[in-house]
Structures are given as structure tokens and as C-alpha cells.
Amino acid sequence: MKNGYWQRMLRIDLANRKTRVEDIPEKDLRRFIGGAGLGAEILRRELPKKIAPFDSRNLLIFGTGPFQGPAVPGGAKFSITGISPQTHTYADTAAGADWGPALKDAGYDVLVIEGVSERPVYLQIVDDRVEIKDATHLWGLDTFETVDAIRKETQDKKLSISVIGPAGERKVAIACIAVDKHSFAGRCGLGAVMGAKNLKAVAVRGTQRVEVHQPDSAAELIKKYRQHILKTVKENGFMAHGTPGLCVTAEGLGDMPIKYWEGDVFHEGAKKLGAPNYTEVLMAKPLPCKYCPIGCHRSITITEPQEYAQVGIGPEYETVGMMGTNCLIDDPKAVAKANEIANKLGIDTISAGAMVGFVMECFERGWITTQDTGGVEIKWGDPKALIGLVEQIGKKEGFGLIFCDGTLGAARKIGIGAQEIVAHCKGLDLPAHDPRACISLAPTYATGTRGACHFRGGCEDVEMGGFFIPEIGITKETVKFFERENQSMLAAKCQDYFALLNSLVLCAFMVDGGDMPFTGVKNLFNAITGWDYSIDDLMIAGDRIFTVQRLNNIRDGYNAKTDELPKKMFKAAQEGFRAGKIPPFKELMEDYYRLRGWDEKGEPKKETLKRLDLAK
Amino acid sequence: MEVRVKLMSLFEEYQKGYPDGRVTLEEGATVLDLVQQLGIPEKLVRILTVNGKQGNLQTGLSEGDTIFLFPPAFGGG
């Protein structure tokens, strides 16, 4: 074949403890590329409508693409898809470290987990040897302890290991999947699905190398773009400061969440939390995934105060935004502590931060009192409240219990007007970017196939001047702040491009921040697969993948009526860069539906499906 | 003429020579002239505001203007 794929899918039925290998037709790979694309298509073909996330029929699909074979910068990545306990529909989430290439080297493109195991188990996959092992003794360990324990008992230090923590075991809706104590598939709660299947971990190692079409050409392109990315990130500060380098700019442009989306400015807070202060105070250094020239993850060291001391992984921009400015907390060490707790218990730091901000607002409104919280006051800016709540949410204990079904679930339990203030789309909490500042985020969030997500698009970075895709007409001239023109086009094209990236699977920071051009992605794809795709071909594949994800959403009950933004997004700021501005949502959605070729119900029209080779 | 400049985030290091943010420019100067005087690489200046409104490198400046210069934003992951 020599096209970067094995064309092999490993399927493991946990209920019957059976494994089998299926062929993946080349036609499917050409249409859905891999990763999130193949995952979406498998879920569309195999799942009945409105399946519950913890139903034994739900699937957990670990997917790679053509970029996990050779040592592609940003290629140490993989995708996980399934029905989310937060959105109750299609979701994909991705992580780095070494797991994606490890699955590929074991001789598989995709791993599908079916059914529910009777008792806790973990998987050990080394090439053709697939073992379902008892994990009763691992149940209860945190995400870091689990990796250490499996490495120790298998005596195999080269295993790459995806695990859940106590939150996943207890089916907390925001549970994440953690990889090698390094990277986290954070969003959408697929860790809880893993927990519901009684699956504690998937440990993989391989000894094979998939063949590519033009190895010399691929190697040359890899070398060229590695050097280009390296030069770029040394110059623009991405390597030195990681994602926290964004804080001050984002806050200055009104993009950062402040006081659970009720605040307008928090200049000093953002300055304390963001780089360069972050880098200095936390003694932060780059922590790269395999093959990565950027190292956006942060390795940090905190020696004092004792209560925050750690040598570990630092919070990303998103975490700093959601646990920091969103809660009016300005101490990076406190946020780092909360981040560490969330990582070890295994919960998404974005949704966890959203939950804490939500509680702080409810407390201020008097909807929650100390009687509910066990005597603890939950006030804005209080690091103790943040840290305590994150721990309770992750452990599903005390007041944290009400969050086991997500923020929306908690709001329903609280009652009064609490549901009205939840900032979410499809049940997924907004990440740390504000559609009132970057209005292309309005259609991006409203139609996001996994709910509100900036990173299934990246359009806000175009608006803020950090990311362009000239090959598809996205340049610094494309949009202007607060002006409707081209914003929905930007949103749709970025969604399609990112759907493609999540299927290749390529870390989006190679292109957004690392400045790897789309042409480079295309050339590398062709050198690996030998398929001679044009930029247009790849964009159609991205559109097709996004549309299949949308078809999953529609099957599960989503439609034009649910393509909405939270109420808070229609309240203008009093001061700051976005003072007086709200997104022209209705107009943006009209533009968006027209560009997508969707009808008034929000469904792709027949001709749209035909154009994308998705007609029945 | 004199303008006031605020250098955000990773641009802070360029403000060292101008601790109070006051920069003197020739009459008719543009943002580009300001950026060059401060020694910031032009290609890193992507987003800027002049008196709170979005501008660009060609925007003309007047006495008393307040200019915010932001480094490129990326990596919101």
C-alpha cells in the first residue's frame, strides 16, 4: 500500500473479551482521512439515535491518521471520539505525548472499544499481542499513579499509556483522558465514557513502521518545516512562553473570560497570570510532545509557598483563563495548583474553571449559600475556593456532587434562574475566548459539532492577527473586528481546516503559531499517501468531515433551534476594547447557513450532501 | 508631537527606553514610524489600537494619541 496507513482497525469488545481486526477500505481513508474524520463516520454508521453516553453500545474510538507514521512535527497526536456525557452527541478530543505514533507503530490506524467490561480492566497492546488485563488494583489511583503502576508491573518503560483518574471512574461528566503524565484529551468528558466501560487505561507500544509513498520527499519536507516552525516560534515567543503568551493580548482585546463572562476588564490580573510573568514566577520551560519543535506544554517548578509547591505541568492559556481571570483569581501559582489537582483527578480544566466561575456567580446572587457548600464561602478571587471546588468536582464529593452531569446539570439542580446564566453551547462550557470580541466565534460556537470550542476552528487567532491561511483566502485583510463581512466565511473555513487537521492528525499549533503553511501540509500529505490532493480536495475532505459530525448532531436531536449562543454573549461591555459591542448573531448565522448549504432546519441540503459525496 | 504608547504582553521589553510611555515623533508620523522608533520588528505588530479604535501601520498619528500595540495572538489551545 505504502500510503501511510495500515488499513487496519483493531476492535475490542470488553463485554465478551474478544478482539478482532477489520480492514479499513481505502475509499473511507480517502474520504475521511483518519482521526476525528473516521471516528465521526464510524459513529454515524454504527450508532442508533440519541444513545446515552454510558449506554454499553456507545463506542470509544482512538484514531490516528497518515501523519502518525513518519516523525512529522506535531504528528505525535491522536483523536478520541464517542458520544459525550456533556453534549449527548458526537465529540472528538485529542492529546499528544507519544500515544498516536505508538498505536501506529503497533500496526493499527484505529482502535475501537465496544461494550462494558464486567470488572475494571486495562489494555496492553504490543503489535499483534492484545491483552485485556485486570485493573481492580489500579482503580482509585490518579492519572499519574496509574501510568507509574502500569509501567512498573509490565516492566515496559516504552509503553505509551492513556488513562483515566478517579473522576473518569466515577463518571464525572467532565472527566478527561490523560496520556503519559504529559498531555490531556480534555474536552467533552470522554474519560467518563472510558470509566463507564470499566476501562482504566490503554497501554500501547509498537515495533513496526508504516510505509509511506515517497519516503525521501517526506523526510525532506519534514526537515524543512521543522526548521521553519522552530525559527518561527523562537522569534514570536511561542517556545519561550507557550500559550500563556496570549493572556495580555487576549484580555486587552476583550477576548478573555472575566468574572464568568460578566466582567469587562482585568488588566492587572491578566498581566500577573500571563507571560512573561507566568514564565518567570513558575520557572516555566517548554515541554514538547514527541517530534515537536514548539513544546507548548509547560514544565514548571514552584518552591513556595508550601501549599502550592510542585514540580509538574503548568496550566495552559485556557486553564489560566477559565480558572484565573474567569474567577477573578490573579495568582498563577494558585491556578497551577488547581490545574495539578484537575490533571491528577482527571478532569477538563476548561469546564472545571467554568464550573467554579458559575458557582461564584450563584453564590454572589444568593442562589447558593454556605448551607449548600458545607460552610465554605465561594467568593470571587478566592484561590482556596477554586482549589477546594476543583478537588470536590474531580472526586465527586461534597458540594462537587452536583456537577457530576456537567454545569448545565448542576444548574438544573440549583433551579431558580441558574440555567439562564450557564455559558455553554450544546452543554459544553465556553472556552476562554469571547465571541463578543472575536465575532467569528459566534457561528463557530453555535454550530460547533462538539459544542462551544475555539479549537475546532482557530478563527479567533485570525481576528487577533496571529494566524492566516492565505491558500484559502484567509489573510490579515479578511475580517475586521466587530464587522460582519467575511466572518462566517472565516468561521466555516477554519472549522473545515481544523476538522482536516484533527483527522490527519496534526497538532494545530504547527499551523497556528508555528506558521507551517497549508501548502506544506498538503505536500506532506501527498508525499505520505501518494494521492496528489489539491488544497481544494483537502478542504472538501474537511467540509465532508465537519458535515458528518453535523449529521451525528442532527441524529441526536440538534438542529437550527439549538444553534444558539448563551445569553451572556448578548450583554455588551461597559468598558474596554469591546465596549458597547455584541455579535450580530442572526445575520452571521444567515451568512453561515448560506455558505454551508444548510436549510432552515439546520440540515445540509441534498445538493450539499451530493457535493460532499455524502448522499445516500 | 508627543503620543503615549502602551506596549502589551511580550512587547513590554521595548518599553524600557520609554518608561512613562511618552514618545516624541515628527509631525505627520504614522504608527509604522512609531514602531520603527521603538525598535519592534514590524511583522510582529499585527493588532493595534489608536485611541481605542483598531488601526494599522499606516494609520496617521496626532498629538496626544494613545496607541496600544499587541503582539500576534495565537496558541489559544
Notes on the protein architecture:
The complex is a heterodimer of chains A (616) and B (77). Chain A has 616 residues and is α+β, with helices and mostly antiparallel strands. Chain A folds into three domains: 8-205, Aldehyde ferredoxin oxidoreductase, N-terminal domain (Aldehyde Ferredoxin Oxidoreductase,  A, domain 1, 4-Layer Sandwich), CATH 3.60.9; 242-414, Orthogonal Bundle (Aldehyde Ferredoxin Oxidoreductase Protein, subunit A, domain 2), CATH 1.10.569.10; 441-611, Orthogonal Bundle (Aldehyde Ferredoxin Oxidoreductase Protein, subunit A, domain 3). Chain A is built from 24 helices and 17 strands. In chain A, strand 16 and strand 17 (428-429) form a beta hairpin. In chain A, 63% of the residues are buried. Chain B has one helix and five strands. Chain B has a five-stranded mixed sheet, with no helix packed on it.
What is this entry, summarized?
With 616 residues, chain A is an alpha+beta fold. The relative contact order of chain A is 0.12. Chain B has a five-stranded mixed sheet with strand order 2-1-5-3-4, with no helix packed on it.
Keyword list:
heterodimer; A: 616 residues; alpha+beta; Aldehyde Ferredoxin Oxidoreductase,  A, domain 1; Aldehyde Ferredoxin Oxidoreductase Protein, subunit A, domain 2; Aldehyde Ferredoxin Oxidoreductase Protein, subunit A, domain 3; 3 domains; 6-stranded mixed sheet; 24 helices; 39% helix; B: 77 residues; mainly beta; Ubiquitin-like (UB roll); 5-stranded mixed sheet; 1 helix; 5 strands; globular
> What share of the residues of chain A lie within helices?
25-40%
DSSP summary: helix tally of chain A:
24
**Mean residue pLDDT of chain A:** 97
Mean pLDDT of chain B: 87
CATH class of the largest domain in chain A: Alpha Beta
Instruction: Name the CATH class of chain B.
Output: Alpha Beta
Number of domains of chain A: 3
Instruction: Flag low-confidence runs of chain B.
Output: none
In DSSP terms, counting alpha (H) and pi (I) runs of 4 or more, how many helices of chain B? 1
CATH level-3 fold name of the largest domain in chain A? Aldehyde Ferredoxin Oxidoreductase,  A, domain 1
Main sheet: strands, sense, barrel of chain B: 5 strands, mixed
Backbone structural class of chain B: mainly beta
Greatest contact pair?
A-B, 43 and 20 residues
Radius of gyration of chain A, in angstroms, nearest whole number: 22 Å
